[in-house]
Design a protein that fits this description.
Blueprint (H helix, E strand, L loop, with lengths): L4 H12 L5 H8 L3 H13 L19 E9 L6 H10 L4 E6 L6 E7 L2 H12 L5 E8 L13
Antiparallel strand pairs: 1-3, 1-4, 2-3
Helix pairs in contact: 1-2, 2-3
Length: 152
């Protein structure tokens, strides 16, 4: 899909201020509210804008532990990926699932209230996932930079 300078202006303003109304975005981008709405609808319909969502501060809600688990799967079974991913989707504490090409096949981002809760999740929900050949756990200590804004 091709986007023009007006689309880029709208996307830049939307990234900078996702809570802005269409009228506010239109004013910031120098277009009419109708043009803004029409363009945002087209960008959403074409899959450029996939949605808007709330960013949850998990520690503020008492979820203090974040762990990135990297899995290598036993790929001798052709259903390994599908079965692992289906089971991982059922674990409520998994907030993100990514697949890779290379030594690591899948990464799960897991949250827990504390270390005891994480240990319970790990033993009862993670270790029982199918087709695991190897697991590497990385405990998150701090988020130094987090930026989803792209230069448009």
């Amino acid at each position: 899909m091709q986007i023009d300078d007006t689309d880029r202006r709208l996307l830049r303003r939307l990234q900078a201020n996702p809570e802005a109304t269409a009228a506010e975005l239109a004013e910031l981008a120098g277009v009419t509210a109708t043009t803004c709405s029409r363009r945002l609808d087209r960008l959403a319909r074409d899959g450029v804008i996939r949605g808007q969502h709330a960013v949850i501060d998990w520690p503020a809600l008492g979820w203090e532990v974040e762990v990135s688990l990297r899995f290598t799967l036993d790929k001798t079974d052709p259903r390994a990926f599908d079965e692992f991913l289906a089971a991982a989707r059922e674990v409520p504490e998994v907030t993100e699932i990514q697949t890779f090409l290379g030594r690591v096949d899948v990464r799960l981002h897991v949250i827990a209230r504390d270390m005891a809760h994480y240990q319970q999740i790990y033993r009862e929900k993670i270790l029982v996932l199918p087709h695991i050949a190897d697991i590497e756990a990385l405990m998150q200590v701090a988020v130094i930079a987090e930026n989803e804004v792209l230069p448009l």
